[in-house]
Amino acid sequence: MTTSRPTTTLWRPTGPVELGLVRELEWRAWPPRLPEQPIFYPVLDEDYAIRIARDWNVKHDGAGFVTRFEVDAEFLRRYPVRQAGGSTILELWVPAEELGEFNAHIVGTIEVVHEFRPVDRNIG
């Protein structure tokens, strides 16, 4: 009899370029970090991810997306939860050089759960 291991749900706010790279990886992995990105930051709260995608990614990238994915809970214990602000602003900090191993512990696929685009305030 096989038993499935417990997973933890994570969210990642992202822009269209990174999302395109995830699509190329068949929705199963995050792309390598750029040299100026030493840390991969998935978040533990959907509302926090929504705020980043809507308020930051749209402004800087032209669109924002919130993805949801599951990761083996036992594996995630190596990454302490970081509080980046208020009590719901929680992140994991995964060093770029560990992203391949992190990706290997994603269970299932990465899915887009929210999409945000600029609002044209001149209409109406």
Description:
The chain has 124 residues and is of the alpha+beta class. Helix content is 28%, strand content 31%. The protein contains 4 helices and 7 strands, in the order E-H-E-H-E-H-E-E-E-H-E. It has helices at residues 16-24, 46-61, 73-76, 99-104; strands at residues 7-14, 39-40, 64-72, 81-83, 90-92, 94-95, 106-116. The longest helix is centred in the middle third of the chain and has 16 residues, at 46-61. It starts with 6 loop residues before the first strand and ends in an 8-residue tail after the last strand. The relative contact order is 0.27.
Reading the helices and strands in chain order gives EHEHEHEEEHE
The Cα radius of gyration reads 15 Å
Q: Unreliable runs, pLDDT <50, ≥5 residues?
A: none
Number of strands: 7
Specify the number of helices: 4
Q: Give the overall form.
A: globular
**Could you tell me the mean pLDDT?**
92
| Structural class by helix and strand composition | alpha+beta
N-end to C-end Cα span: 61 Å
Entry keywords:
single chain; 124 residues; alpha+beta; 3-stranded antiparallel beta sheet
What's the layout of helices and strands?
Blueprint: E1 7-14, H1 16-24, E2 39-40, H2 46-61, E3 64-72, H3 73-76, E4 81-83, E5 90-92, E6 94-95, H4 99-104, E7 106-116
Antiparallel strand pairs: 1-3, 2-6, 3-7, 4-5
Summary of the model, kept short:
The protein has 124 residues and is α+β, with helices and mostly antiparallel strands. The chain is 28% helix and 31% strand.
